[in-house]
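Reopening this ticket.

The earlier resolution said the output was attached, but the attachment link was broken on my side. Pasting everything inline this time so it's all in one place.
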Amino acid sequence: MPEPTVRKRQLGGELRRLRESAGMKLDEAVARLGWTKSKLSRVEVARLGIKPSDLDALLDLYAVEDSSKRDVLHAIARHGSQRGWWQTYKDFISPAYADLISLEADAKSMRTYQSTLIPGLLQTPAYARATIDALSMTATPSEVNALTQVRMTRQSVLSRPEPLEFWAVLHEATLRPRVKSDPKIMREQLQKLLDHAVLPQVSIQVLPMDAPPHAGMLGSFAVIGFPETADLDVAYLENLTSALYVEDPAEVSRYGSAFERLRASALPFDESASLIERLKDTT
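Inline output:
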């Protein structure tokens, strides 16, 4: 059985919290609903979707009267049954990567710190292809091309009618590699950063090489924010073979605080742009 998506886990976890806040054990809730224990348990652990009528029955049982809260939970429940463009590439992308793309599609904001790579949402095709080829190691040329196309298509979240609010803090080291010893690739990539930095929905800052010890020394991360409530924000961490989604609100808040410290330590926007321009001109 495939792993449940982050949004399904969020819904199940919230329904469990609402039941516990209402002072109900699982047995009591299912008895009053006329459900099987297995059904509610599987909904709460995100192994089973939920129909709108069943969701309303649960929310009525738990005395959830806040209409905005109910709307949020219905929106998340609908999300679980939606098909996105990325499913066309299911043979090339992992479930965890599909989850990230799905979250980006729903998100209001993303704040990311990157220590070694330009963020995927800001990459040029040439830079994306070179880094995908290097990191995947065993991918065929057709797989590299497909993954590059996925990465480029992801960037549409920055130009949709209500664009993703994207704030990136980039360690200066991300701006310096000579990808495949081809200076042109890096010059084009740095120019793309400059082009995007002037967009109202994109903020780019550089953390200089001589910055003092900081909260990003353990690696890159992203905090994905949703329009409904901060309790449903997610932190995302990626390594060579897997990805980790941090969903506990207290832990996500720590990543948010880490980002704020990194933002405060980074160069201001104009100085960041000037540094990117100088590096582009000398590459």
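Reporter confirms the inline version is readable. The chain has eleven helices and six strands. The mean pLDDT is 89.
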